[in-house]
């Protein structure tokens, strides 16, 4: 049964469980800055407009399916509770079947910061334990810079992140992000990237 129902009573962010292993901490920092700009005057309105999509899983735990970066940012900023939107009630599904179901529906992303697939048990149980993937930050910035279009493909930014990590040295991303972004923009227009979600094609002059 699929439902989309906001939970009126706030849910503790510390109790939310992630469905992926990493975030881009540079992206998290940007969202922390956004929250600080909104918090004093429009904090309640902001939270009301940014409900977190979740699955209701075994033992009635809430599993985040999107907006991990925002959730982590709010947690790091000291926000205790947030509204959630339940997109599916899977509370009756056995734990072992639960993760297989999520995997089949592209509701989880069990890949580490090196792009390697891991066991479901390796997915953190807390939002605070999500690890940094610098290439996820680079992929997010690449999209905003016009390197590729926003796409409905699940975890599309992670797919781009994996492509970028195979062509750009991680030290460049960590120490010279602007240079890494310039390289990423060039890579995004190559024909070798045409299989990626949101690919905009090579730049052609008429």
Note down, in words, how this protein is organized.
The chain has 206 residues and is of the alpha/beta class. It has 2 domains: 5-132, Conserved hypothetical protein from pyrococcus furiosus pfu- 392566-001, ParB domain (Alpha-Beta Complex); 134-193, Helicase, Ruva Protein, domain 3, CATH 1.10.8.10. The chain is 40% helix and 12% strand. It is built from 7 helices and 8 strands; from the N terminus they run βββαββαββαβαααα. Strand 4 and strand 5 form a beta hairpin. The protein is globular and about 50 Å long. The model has no long low-confidence stretch (mean pLDDT 93).
| Count of domains | 2
Could you estimate the helical fraction of the residues in percent? Answer: 40-55%
- Give the averaged pLDDT, no decimals: 93
Number of helices: 7
Secondary-structure arrangement, i.e. CATH architecture of the largest domain:
Alpha-Beta Complex
> Biggest sheet, strands in spatial order?
1-7-4-5
**How much beta, percentage-wise?**
5-15%
Kindly report how far apart the N and C termini lie. Answer: 52 Å
Q: Which class best fits the helix and strand makeup? A: alpha/beta
Biggest sheet, open or closed, and with what strands and sense? Answer: 4 strands, mixed
Find the CATH superfamily of the largest domain. Answer: Conserved hypothetical protein from pyrococcus furiosus pfu- 392566-001, ParB domain
> Secondary-structure element sequence?
EEEHEEHEEHEHHHH
């Amino acid at each position: 049964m699929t439902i989309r129902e906001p939970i009126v009573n706030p849910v503790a962010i510390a109790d939310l469980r992630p469905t992926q292993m990493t975030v881009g901490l540079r992206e998290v920092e940007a969202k922390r800055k956004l929250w600080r700009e909104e918090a004093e005057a429009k904090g309640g309105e902001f939270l009301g407009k940014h409900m977190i999509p979740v699955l209701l899983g075994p033992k009635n735990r809430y599993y985040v399916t999107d907006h991990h970066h925002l959730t982590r940012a709010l947690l790091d900023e000291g926000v205790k509770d947030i509204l959630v939107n339940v997109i599916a009630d899977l509370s009756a599904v056995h734990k072992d079947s639960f993760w297989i179901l999520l995997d089949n529906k592209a509701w989880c992303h069990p890949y580490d910061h090196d792009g390697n697939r891991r066991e479901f048990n390796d997915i953190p149980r807390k939002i605070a334990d999500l690890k940094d993937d610098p290439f996820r930050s680079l992929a997010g910035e690449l999209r905003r810079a016009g390197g590729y279009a926003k796409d409905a493909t699940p975890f599309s930014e992670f797919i781009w992140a994996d492509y970028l990590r195979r062509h750009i040295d991680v030290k460049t991303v960590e120490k010279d992000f602007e240079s890494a972004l310039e390289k990423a923009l060039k890579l995004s227009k190559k024909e070798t990237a045409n299989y990626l979600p949101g690919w905009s094609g090579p730049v052609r002059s008429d």
